[in-house]
Specification:
- It is built from 8 helices and 34 strands.
- The protein is α+β, with helices and mostly antiparallel strands.
- The chain folds into 2 domains: 111 residues, no CATH class; 444 residues, Methylamine Dehydrogenase, Chain H (7 Propeller), CATH 2.130.10.
- A hairpin with a 6-residue loop joins strand 8 and strand 9.
- The N terminus is likely disordered.
- The structure holds fe (ii) ion.
Length: 569
């Protein structure tokens, strides 16, 4: 195995710029909002004293004000160190201080919580009762909205391309009550209908699963999972004429074009497994490839395939030693690739966890990490496993065959959830090249920006897409994966595209009749904390760094969410 991590994508036409924050202070940034929003006054005072001497934490808080109006309300808009501050002596070590403050906040939370024994759950039992939480995910644009709106003929700045006829749909967590962790809130789909150059309507609708509508057990009487129990909050995809809201531990839920929930979808009774929120639709065959995971009992992972008509044709167990958090996988023209990474479900933690903000998964050094390669033309054949350096990956950006190698471009975390399930470090773009002849995996870091939610032109799923767009800090980052360069479409005060703003995942909508990756538009919801509102922003892919071609003003902010799709007519 070889590794090189010395390269960083230069930005097209720009010199390199230093990162605003390192991983340690990203952690502090999120926790800053937590402690400022949740601690007693005495603890706040201690944190403010720390801020005076710690330039990095001040910078973190200043950045956070861009996405959290709460901090503005608390007068943290402009945190400035006085001239007399001596940073060398005034600043205690950030991790220690934050650990201490977080512990005190947890104690307050625990004291206020009336806990009872719960059955094990892959996600906290809080999902179905008193939802758990990062307080930061209850503030700013992480906070949920409380009702469902319908608005017609939305105001537009610029011009919506007339050939964009369809729906832009995006899913995300929107808890109805409690203080729920962002990741496990009830799914809500936000959609905009584009039609002949106008934004015909906006709707937001909860995915009204059976467990949304009434108390519903996570497990059946025989101990198996109740796959109808779902928060359906992660993705929304269309295949074989059905639009499916997805969350990886349950069945899909079908929704209508008007975002009304039609019911659980089990492929005509054939799917007796959960379905990943990241299925892959092969543009050549129309097949949908996916897997199910989350079963405490073996098999922990099952690979599934549905044909272009939506008929389930393949169910094939994948042998892995333990139940890990397997969020995504990869498809190429000839292979599927599974990521067996060292973030393991902890049954004892699920039974005993006291912190409702926690998820029962933990990093395990001894587990190792490996990639499992299965030939598409031999779906019941052997899975070849290849060791890689331990890491965690939520999302694969791009994957393709290259001669006798299988290449994955992924957003890689050095580790995940060692001591708690709080997010600490950023993901960065890496490339894995699996040599099927030698059995070796070449691992190389391509960039050191922190990014997430990567997308390519989905018509190139399984092929070598040239471009992948991910969400960075106040910007969309587009990687040119052939030239190993990157460019940014910036939002915010230091960019040219409006007020400080936070974009979400950007989806590519191709121009009709065109096959080029630059012939089309990127669609994303962008939140503006100044107005506490959101827009659907449409960016010409051939002018990525330029002004958007259209900004559709939405009737209300769209909370930060996960994934979505452009669904053309
Ligand atoms: Fe995801």
């Amino acid at each position: 195995m070889t590794e090189s991590r010395d390269s960083k994508f230069p930005r097209d036409g720009e010199p390199d710029t230093p990162d605003m924050l390192d991983g340690e202070h990203d952690y502090a940034m999120w926790d800053a909002a937590y402690v400022l929003g949740a601690l007693a006054d005495a603890d706040r005072l201690e944190f403010e004293t720390h801020l005076v001497g710690c330039a990095s934490c001040r910078q973190a808080v200043t950045e956070l004000t861009a996405v959290s109006p709460l901090l503005s309300l608390l007068d943290y808009d402009h945190v400035v160190a006085p001239d007399f501050a001596d940073e060398s002596t005034a600043a205690p070590p950030c991790p220690d201080l934050m650990t201490s403050l977080l512990a005190r906040a947890d104690q307050r939370s625990a004291a206020a919580s009336d806990r009872s024994e719960r059955p094990p759950s892959l996600i906290p039992a809080a999902v179905v009762d008193a939802q758990t939480v990062f307080p930061v995910f209850r503030t700013g644009n992480y906070a949920p909205v409380h009702d469902e709106l319908t608005a017609f003929d939305l105001p537009v700045q610029g011009s919506i391309p007339a050939e964009l006829n369809g729906w832009y749909l995006r899913n995300g967590p929107n808890p109805r009550s409690g203080a729920g962790h962002w990741c496990v809130g009830d799914g809500m789909v936000h959609g905009v209908r584009l039609e002949n150059g106008r934004a015909a309507w906006y709707r937001n609708r909860w995915v009204r699963t059976e467990s949304f509508e009434r108390p519903f057990p996570n497990y059946n009487d025989d101990g198996t999972r109740n796959l109808h129990a779902s928060i359906a909050n992660t993705h929304v995809v269309r295949h074989a004429g059905k639009t499916l809201a997805l969350m990886e531990f349950s069945l899909p839920y079908e929704i209508s074009n008007d975002l009304e929930t039609l019911g659980a979808y089990d492929f005509g009774g054939k799917l007796m497994d959960s379905m990943t929120a990241h299925p892959k639709i092969c543009p050549a065959t129309g097949e949908m490839h996916f897997f199910g995971s989350g079963n405490i009992f073996e098999p922990h992972v099952i690979y599934h395939r549905a044909d272009a008509d939506g008929q389930l044709t393949i169910d094939r167990p994948i042998d892995v030693p333990a139940l890990t958090l397997m969020h995504d996988f990869a498809l190429t023209a000839d292979h599927v690739v599974f990521m067996d990474l060292p973030l393991l479900f902890d049954l004892s933690l699920a039974f005993t966890q006291q912190n409702e903000r926690d998820l029962p998964y933990r990093w395990q050094d001894q587990y190792g990490a490996r990639l499992g390669v299965l030939r598409r033309d031999d779906p019941y054949g052997p899975v070849r496993w290849f060791d890689i350096d331990p890491c965690f990956v939520f999302h694969v950006a791009n994957s393709y065959d290259n001669g006798n190698s299988v290449v994955l471009e992924v957003l890689r975390y050095p580790e995940m959830w060692r001591d708690s399930s709080e997010f600490g470090t950023d993901a960065e773009l890496w490339r894995w090249s699996i040599n099927l002849d030698t059995g070796m995996v070449e691992e190389s870091q391509l960039d050191d920006r922190g990014v997430e939610f990567p997308r390519v032109d989905d018509r190139l799923a399984g092929a070598a897409a040239r471009y992948s767009v991910a969400v960075g800090s106040g910007a969309l980052v587009r990687y040119d994966l052939q030239r190993d360069t990157a460019s940014e479409h910036r939002f915010g005060a230091d960019g040219s595209h409006g007020a400080p703003s936070a974009p979400g995942e950007a989806v590519f909508a191709p121009a009709v009749g065109e096959s080029d990756e630059l012939a089309g538009w990127y669609l994303t919801y962008v939140y503006d904390p100044v107005t506490d509102g959101s827009e659907l922003v449409i960016i010409d892919a051939s002018d990525f760094e330029g002004d958007p071609v259209a900004r559709v003003r939405l009737p209300r902010r769209v909370p930060h969410g996960f994934h979505g799709n452009w669904i053309p007519d």
